[in-house]
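Holo prediction. Input below; ligand is manganese (II) ion.
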Amino acid sequence: MTSVVLFDIPAPPTIAVQGTLTRFPVNRIFCVGRNYAEHAKEMGVEVDRETPFYFLKSPHAIVESGATVAYPPGTANYHYEMEFVVAVGQPGFKIDAAKALDHVYGYATGLDMTRRDLQLEARAKGRPWDLGKDFEQSAVISRIVRKEEFGEIGQQRIWLEVGGKTQQDARLSDLVWKVPELISHLSQFYHLSPGDLIFTGTPAGVGAVVAGNGMRGAVDGLPEVLLTIGQPS
Ligand code: MN
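Structure of the complex:
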């Protein structure tokens, strides 16, 4: 007697790798909270310098740059968060920060789209953030640029425009927890796997978007991430 799988479920999403015909399959999406001091301040909280913290999104939240997504259900305060994204290419557990970048495949630009009203309500009640953060089409991502092509993480500018007006503008050097520290810390709790993505947090200037808005953002050396908001589905 052989067993039979009841039905098919969606395959993991994949992301284009710049300048190649290869695609990067997405395993897990880790997101870092409060990783720019000015953003923490605008959210009415302090950066915790003791330890970083995370939330996750389902890989099926992935949307490729250039899409139009429907205004999501359950919110009246739908926010953008422009982020620098790390794509993990080598497995690792309890990784030393000095070796952390050996586990990186490449980098991309992303939008951590957020139902801010639901996130803040959950935060106030001490509940998980899932309804505010982990929903369909909430993780928007550009093509991935391989680590060797991008080079060192330093003073690169990270910015976002909504309708042609600059709303977020910072430098990767403003990251509170640097990428090697994040990889090392996360890997104390998870066996990191190829296909994992790390959204490293957003700078100050987050805000709401409505149907008809278009967003365009980038990090120096990486492709732009583009998103248009459509009518509610
Ligand atoms: Mn974020």
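Residues 14-230 form a domain with the Fumarylacetoacetate hydrolase; domain 2 fold (CATH 3.90.850.10). That is the main takeaway for now.
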